[in-house]
Amino acid sequence: MPKDQNLDLGSLVEPDRVHKACYADEEIFEQELKNIFHKSWIYIGHESQVPNPGDYWTTWVGKERMIICRAEDGQVHVLYNRCPHRGALICNNLHGNSGNKKSFRCPYHAWQFAMDGSLRNLPMKEGYDGIIDLKDPQLQMKPAERQGNYRGFIFASLSEDGPDLETWLGGGKVAFDDICNRSPEGEAEIVANCFRIVQHSNWKIFLENQLDAVHPSITHHSTGDAAADMQKVYKKKTGEDAPMGYQFLADFTLPFEKWDSLDTIGHPNGHTVLEGYMGLRPTDAVTQAHEKVLTDAYGEDRMNEILDTKVHHVLVYPCLSVQPPLQQLRAVRPLAANKTLTEIWHFRLKGAPEGIYDRSLAYYYHVNAPSTMVNADDLNNFRACQDGLRLEGGGDWVSLHRNVGQDPVKDGVTTSVTGMSEQPMRNMFAAWKKYMTNEGSA
Amino acid sequence: MPKDNVLETSADTQRAVEQFLYSQAEILDERRWADWLGLFTDDGKYWMPADPEQTTGERLPNIFYEDVYLMDMRIRRVKHPYAHSQMAGHRTSHTVSNVIIQSEDEASGGVVCTSRFHMVEYRLDDQRYFGGKYTHTLKKNEDGYNIQLQRVDIANVEGPFDFVMQVWL
């Protein structure tokens, strides 16, 4: 319970402000894991991450450590990373292949499991004769309570009950549709590299920042200026336009009016979308080649519809930040109230020109690599917020007042009155309150 | 070490290469950014692969992969008055050792050399450690060397990283 005993969980979230305990209190954090991360659907990985039988990656759902793997019959499974014998982690590497036998082998007593978690073999079996059937459920690696696949993106839920994945995603589906639709084959393929960055701040601060259109031109002032300077220097020295990566960076210091003109859309369950466009449909040869393969696959009208989709950023609450037009995905893994791991991936669009991948890779490098000049300043802000929020004095509330009450709502979907409205934060906290007070997902 | 891994080079070359590597580390630690940029050839690159097995930085994810223009940009960003995360004071200290000349081009005087480094970084009341291997492709010039490629393989390449790396290691 929060330190101030007068506050119950529901009263921590008001329409226009939230209590600092939501970010700083360890007990509330534990309840978030239980009520949000162990109840909703959490992104585990992409099916192309485990292309071959025996392949596995490890990750987190709340406090639980999970494995995504592919079995010999091609099925993808999500399992708890725990040996049912003495409880050891079965997979102790970030990723790998379970070897010729396509069996997980516990490093402690060599219990061996098929990729669906069923016990295959163990040394000295006779010690169990007449005591317990080796097919007993308690001797198998446990699969996630539920598993779902939306267009190749695999989710797990640790709750037996609740809406199915597609219903739960609702308006958040656009994150995956807008990635896959840009491929003439309708599919994305993950690039097998995961950048992992630990943020010294609460998981919600990261999500809120992604759809905070006020911060870029302030937080990223230095990087935007430096990129714009270098575009001029590059042109002067080489006679050519600087590579696209510089424009990605210069865009961070777009004037306020530009950000203000974008819309944010708040969907049920906290999924939130930033609409808008970062000049991704120029008239260069790469774009034309992309238009051609999409027209061949889908026809011209559908090609235009796909490439004009104006989605800049999607938050799938509580676990993902996705930038579909550039095929970027960051998974949020809360480690403590003040510590969050992000697993950062990017994708290729199957059948799209190589130059389209180059854009994705350039964004991945400039914005998401461990050397990024962009998130360097974000991470510093997140840390500063967390350090301030844990203070006892100086005030108890976090303000989310900007444009409150002015955002139009229709059929449960909120459209921000301006791009700078704090609607995304309020939308996520509305979902937070529902989960935390056990009203379930919307 | 197997004998065939040891290249016969003159003591002068060994000494010149070592002095050069020490001085590039010193330039980084003293944040002499213009001097740093001046170390590289026009086509020079600073590269930190995301995977130790990588043989190229092209069209692959990298932790750092920067030509002189991107390095120039990074310098402008670090020096910018609104680079918030640089305001709290940021210091590094490198130690370079184990310098081995792997190959030498007698005609041009260029060398490929490997070395090991330790680096401590101080920021926000906290110190973090990096260690790894440098592989330098050096071109001979009138006064010494220029860097055509500085490959940096850090020991903790898979991460996870606390915060990010704002300047070169």
What does this structure look like?
The complex is a heterodimer of chains A (442) and B (169). Chain A is an alpha+beta fold. Chain A folds into two domains: 42-150, Rieske [2Fe-2S] iron-sulphur domain (Rieske Iron-sulfur Protein, 3-layer Sandwich); 171-213 and 262-436, Naphthalene 1,2-dioxygenase Alpha Subunit, Chain A, domain 1 (Alpha-Beta Complex). Chain A is built from 14 helices and 23 strands. Chain A has helices at residues 21-24, 26-37, 165-169, 174-180, 203-210, 216-219, 221-238, 244-250, 256-260, 285-298, 300-307, 354-368, 375-389, 423-436, and strands spanning 13-14, 17-19, 42-46, 55-61, 64-70, 76-80, 95-97, 103-105, 112-114, 119-121, 146-150, 153-157, 188-190, 195-199, 264-266, 272-275, 311-316, 320-323, 328-336, 339-349, 397-399, 409-410, 413-415. In chain A, the strands form five sheets. In chain A, strands 13, 14, 15, 16, 17, 18, 19, 20, 22 and 23 form a ten-stranded antiparallel β-sheet that branches. In chain A, a hairpin with a 4-residue loop joins strand 9 (112-114) and strand 10 (119-121). The longest helix of chain A is centred in the middle third of the chain and has 18 residues, at 221-238. Chain A is globular and about 80 Å long. With 169 residues, chain B is α+β, with helices and mostly antiparallel strands. Chain B has a single domain (3-154), classed as Roll (Nuclear Transport Factor 2, Chain: A). Chain B has helices at 11-29, 33-38, 68-79; strands spanning 40-49, 62-67, 90-104, 111-123, 126-140, 145-154, 161-162. A six-stranded mixed β-sheet of chain B has the order 2-1-6-5-4-3. Chain B is globular. The interface between A and B is large, with 43 and 33 residues.
